[in-house]
Design brief:
It contains three helices and seven strands. The chain is 22% helix and 37% strand. It has one domain: Thiol Ester Dehydrase, Chain A (Roll), CATH 3.10.129. A hairpin with a 3-residue loop joins strand 4 and strand 5. It starts with a strand and ends with a helix.
Length: 131
Amino acid sequence: MLKRRYEFKAEFFDADPMGVMWHGNYVKYLEMDRCRLLDELNFNYIKMQNRGFALPIIKMDLKYINPIYFNDDFIVEIRRVECDITLKFNYILLSKDNQIIVKASTTQVAVTLNKETLYAIPDELKFALNQ
C-alpha cells in the first residue's frame, strides 16, 4: 500500500494567541502532504488538469487527539487506502516522539473540468497511485 511520511514545522501564523495551532490549519498540512505525494508520483494537480480532470474533496474527517504548538516539528503520514470509484487517503499526524496528534481522512472523486462526475479514478492516475 502506498505510504509516505513528511516532516513539517508549525509556523507562527498557524497558532492562535495561546500558541496552539488553530484547528483549521491542520487541513492545510493534509493538503501539503497530499500535494507532495502527487508531485513525487509525477501526477500532480496540474497534470490532472492538463489531462482534463480534477479531484475535488467530497469528504474530510479529522479527530484531534493532542495539540501542535508554535514551532513544534511534526510528521504527517499519508496512506492511500482506496483508488477505484473514489480516492481515499488516511493521515496520521505525529509528534517527533511518535505521539498521535490527529487522525484524518480525505475522500475525492474525479470530475471533468466541466464538473461532470467520472464515476471512476482515471486509469493513468490509478497506475501512478499503485506503484
